[in-house]
Amino acid sequence: MKAFERKVLDFIDNENLLRPGQRVLVACSGGVDSVALLLFAATLRERLQIELAGIHVDHMLRGEESAEDGHFVKGICDRLEIPFFGGNVPVPAILDEQGGNVQDICRSGRYAFFSEVMKTERYDVLATAHHAEDQLETVLMQLSKGSIPTGISIKRKMNGGTVIRPFLPAMKEELLAYTREQGVRFREDPSNESDAYLRNRLRHQVAPIILAENPSAALNVVKMTTGLQEDRELLDKLAKESFDSMVTYTLDGDPAFEQDRFTDMHTALQKRFILLLLKYLYNGESIPVEYNTALLEQLHHHLSARHGNVSIDLPRGYRFVREYSNVTFVKNLENQVGPPQILPKGEWVRWGDMLLSWDDAEDCNNDGCERQYFDLPDSDLPLHVRGRKDGDRILLPGMDKPKRLSRLFIDEKIGAKRRQRLPIITTAHDEICAIPGVRYGIPFKSRKTEQEKYIFKVRKCNNLI
Prior knowledge:
Blueprint: H1 3-14, E1 23-27, H2 32-43, H3 45-48, E2 51-58, H4 64-80, E3 84-88, H5 91-98, H6 102-121, E4 125-127, H7 132-144, E5 155-158, E6 161-164, H8 172-181, H9 198-213, H10 217-246, E7 248-249, E8 255-258, H11 259-263, H12 267-281, H13 293-304, E9 310-313, E10 318-323, E11 326-331, E12 341-342, E13 349-351, E14 354-360, E15 370-374, E16 384-386, E17 393-394, E18 403-404, H14 405-411, H15 416-421, E19 424-426, E20 432-435, E21 439-440, E22 444-445, E23 454-460
Parallel strand pairs: 1-2, 1-4, 2-3, 4-6
Antiparallel strand pairs: 5-6, 7-8, 8-11, 9-10, 10-11, 12-16, 13-14, 14-23, 15-22, 15-23, 16-19, 17-18, 19-20, 20-21
Organism: Sporosarcina luteola
GO molecular function, one term: tRNA(Ile)-lysidine synthase activity
Keywords: ATP-binding, Cytoplasm, Ligase, Nucleotide-binding, tRNA processing
């Protein structure tokens, strides 16, 4: 066994990348790196006790030349006597129709095909040929963007199975030497020479300087990122345990938790906790809400702060609400408020989970209703109900000036979610006279006297007879 093969096998064993009996797809572009991986896996498949196949995707960017790459990979698979799966992603057509980033479209289309084959053909693992210098370039890219330099994952879940990178401990020159020793040719993609892409610029202009200073720099980066990924895995596990123990859910499925339990966590867990919340809200998608640093820092700031209440709009109609040490993520609060309505005399009108009615005052049995008695001139009737608006005020008993509803809600400790649903009772001239369940204005009395001609009643929907 060659020293190169032994090194890679040790890495596979140490990182638990493969198990006997697994079915493995090797992603092969036809370039030297992936051809070396295909040769390595085929040579050692009995030692690894795996079933093996090759898979190739033509992105249709170089016409007949890129189509020839697929024929070339199929030829290698035929000589190695392993199955071959080939597919196409019409990147030029997608760009013309939808626009976008070439590399992103290539990657998403490529992995979609990988996932499809893994599911339909029942393969467990996808192996890619990223090596130590690829890891160095990835770390440089992450640093340039302000991301944590964890590099390419050694092993991660993907749609359809698991993707592994067994060549991370190897240098490019080792892969080149290994392929040549096997007497196998490989293809060259001219796009790898273009400095139009950040990775290529780092590969051609930055990485050589680092490697000239220290030839072991790429291998050192692999060791560093391996440790960082192990730390990340542990922190993610602890954050998930905290998430599962802390978060409760409303009847609508909205997550909620106590702020004090959040602030008791270490900062590293807090930030991962926030990511789990966003992942839950958006069903694991990363596109609808770009989990950028600014958004995460904003949420972390408001979850850590102790003063006042706060509400933040999130993409797709979600809202973060922190009120009196309780935190919720809710959906479309603004849509839960119905349109303004007239309250016809003697009829029940539904508003959210309340039924509202007014009529001539009369003695009646205690039927579980909240009731108030009032008198208003005929010109102020009928009563109306609507949702709250900015600048709303109500004149309360014992006050000589109307009080802002925003201030009243703070004093009464009414949370943001409840504020949005409260019925605001007004006269025919849109003057606020009552907020059922909170406070009633000057015209209303809890006991009937000779002056009050009308009764106002509130009933929960589940109490309706």
